[in-house]
Specification:
- With about 450 residues, the chain is of the alpha/beta class.
- It is about 35% helix and about 25% strand.
- Strands 1, 2, 3, 4, 5, 6 and 7 form a seven-stranded mixed β-sheet that branches.
- Strand 13, helix 9 and strand 14 form a beta-alpha-beta unit.
- Helix 1 crosses helix 2 and helix 1 crosses helix 4.
């Protein structure tokens, strides 16, 4: 079953998995997680209704009850899992992937993620090998009214918007369901703000800058203080500064540090293995000592609890909140905290770009993707060369990060897509380009 991944179940619906897979997941997930009732939500993808029906039938035939949220964002499922004290939850979504994809994000009590090493591998085996014996059917309970509680919860983080000019791209995804009820006042221009699982305007992946062309244009046209773009299920968010420039998402982790520092807080923060030194050095300076860890929500949500971090962030635009959101990620919540920062800056006669420029001290490639058949051989070749250059530090989880005095790079295999991913950062652009050319030449030998 190729749809069972490190973080969730995901793939092209009808090819990598089908409604029979979803029925089996529904049937066995309660046994796996010892759950008497399972909360279910779904995004707007065209295949989601069929998956929703099959998944729920599997749960009911196992004798367990369903708490049905209906259409919702992924963070709303996390909120409801805690709010309703649900035994387990499943969100039907493929997050930022193209329209032909879909998937299932599974959590247990407390919104703790179920990943490859925490239950998904066992669930895959159960679906492949165990016999289904239908039991007395459970019942479905309609919990779609949780949406109103969730809106109230998010609204408690909204700053005064009267002085702000904001542009927002909902990517025709699930943020469209909530955002206009959360943000009141101010001058807000929305685009792609209708739910449409065919994603007619651009793919719901704002990490690819081509998908940000519209929001960049809108931000400049509207003379906005900030542009905001959510992904398909609203668990991720990216930002455009007032000059129409895309802000690398790991720099926003530093902005969140600025927000919590303004509240008088300090403590630990969590970042992933690809995070810029600009961010980690800034967080250290303001009192949020960073811990570098693996990429992905299934790992981050466990680690943030373990180290008792106030917040965390990833290069992919996931932001986690121990203090404010049950250790989970929320694109909308992250955007509200950033709006608080933008308002504070504007009140002081400053801009978002000026804050970012004060944080960024190095030249960074961003994440560069190489589509490769022999990824392991390419990684080994990189390690053979660069370990010989006596790195100051080597991190060897979730790929590798090799650090030197004036530069560093990370290399890792994607857990969800057929790519080798490189991030490289150096003291200046000349050194960055030189090192990236070296690495590019090595990798191309295996293309």
């Amino acid at each position: 079953m190729s749809a069972f991944k490190a973080y969730d179940i995901r793939g092209i619906y009808g090819k990598d998995f089908d409604k029979e897979t979803c029925y089996k997941v529904g049937y066995f997930v309660g046994e796996l997680l010892k759950a008497d009732h399972i909360l279910v939500g779904r995004d707007v993808r065209l295949s989601s209704p069929e998956i929703h029906e099959s998944l729920i039938n599997g749960i009911l035939d196992s004798g367990r009850d369903v708490y049905d949220l209906g259409l919702c964002t992924t963070p709303m499922v996390y909120y409801a899992t805690v709010h309703l004290d649900a035994d387990a939850s499943i969100q039907i979504t493929a997050s930022h992937n193209p329209k032909e994809y879909n998937g299932l994000k599974i959590s247990k009590k407390g919104a703790l993620p179920v990943g490859g090493d925490s239950g998904l591998k066992e669930l895959e085996k159960m679906c492949a090998e165990k016999e289904i014996v239908k039991k007395e059917r459970g019942k479905v309970c309609d919990y779609s009214n949780v949406k109103e509680d969730y809106i109230k919860y998010l609204s408690s983080f909204v700053p005064s918007l009267e002085t702000l000019n904001i542009s927002i791209d909902c990517s025709n995804g699930m943020s469209s369901l909530l955002i206009k009820d959360v943000l009141k006042g101010g001058s807000i221009k929305y685009i792609n703000d209708t739910l449409d699982g065919s994603f007619p305007n651009h793919e719901p992946n704002p990490l690819e800058e081509k998908n940000c062309a519209q929001i960049k244009e809108e931000t400049l046209k509207n003379k906005s203080d900030v542009g905001i773009i959510y992904d398909g299920d609203a668990d991720r968010v990216m930002f455009i500064d007032e000059k129409g420039r895309f802000i690398q998402p790991d720099y926003i982790t530093a902005v969140l540090g600025y927000y919590y520092k303004s509240l008088g807080l300090s403590g630990r923060s969590l970042v992933d293995i690809r995070t810029s030194r600009s961010t980690t050095e800034y967080l250290s300076e303001i009192g949020f000592e960073p811990t570098i860890w693996k990429v992905g929500h299934a790992f981050a949500k466990v680690k943030i609890r373990e180290i008792d971090a106030v917040f965390g962030g990833e290069l992919a635009g996931h932001y986690y909140f121990r203090r404010d959101f049950f250790n989970c990620d929320s694109g909308i919540l992250a955007s509200l905290l950033v709006l608080s920062v933008v308002k504070k800056l504007k009140d002081e006669g400053k801009t978002l770009s000026s804050l970012i420029e004060s944080i960024v001290k190095y030249s960074n490639t961003g994440e560069v993707n190489f589509k490769l058949e022999n990824k392991d051989a390419a990684i080994n070749a990189l390690l053979e060369k660069y370990k010989g250059e006596n790195p100051d530090k080597i991190l060897d989880f979730d790929g590798y990060r090799l650090e030197y005095k004036n530069w560093w790079f990370s290399v890792r295999k994607s857990n969800t897509e057929p790519y080798l991913r490189i991030v490289l950062e150096a003291k200046d652009k000349e050194l960055m380009d030189e090192k990236m050319a070296e690495i590019n030449a090595i990798i191309k030998q295996f293309n």
